[in-house]
Amino acid sequence: MPILSVIELRKTYGDIIAVDNISFNVAKNEIVGLLGPNGAGKTTTINMILGVLEPDSGGITIDGLDIFSRRSQAVSRTNFSASYTPLPGNLTVLQNLMIFGRLYSVKNLSKRIEELLIYFDLAKFRNTKCGLLSSGEQTRVSLAKSILNSPHLLLLDEPTASLDPATASEVRLKIKEFVAKGEGGVLWTSHNMYEVEEICGRVLFLSHGKILLEGNPKTLPQEYGKKTLEELFITVAREPLTLREN
Ligand code: ATP
Question: Which entry of 121, 159, 200, 237 is 20 to 30 Å from 214 by CA?
Answer without folding.
Answer: 159
